[in-house]
Specification:
The chain is elongated, with a radius of gyration of 24 Å. It is built from three helices and no strands. The termini are far apart. The protein is an all-alpha fold. Keywords: Membrane, Transmembrane, Transmembrane helix. This is Methyl-accepting chemotaxis sensory transducer. It comes from Fructobacillus ficulneus.
Length: 64
Amino acid sequence: MLVGILLIILFFAHHWLFSLIIIGLIVYSIQTKKRRFVDRPQTSRTNFGGRRDISDEAEQSDVK
């Protein structure tokens, strides 16, 4: 078990560019999940208002 952990650490230490790419992907995925979680309640609150805005815009474009 300890040998496996040491091999993984040595692999990432040796291939530092590869490890930076993996860390960047992990951080990016965490940030996008946080954004989706924050955006989701806002869309549920404004869902009906957004639909009314769309219909209002459609009516205004018909009038023009």
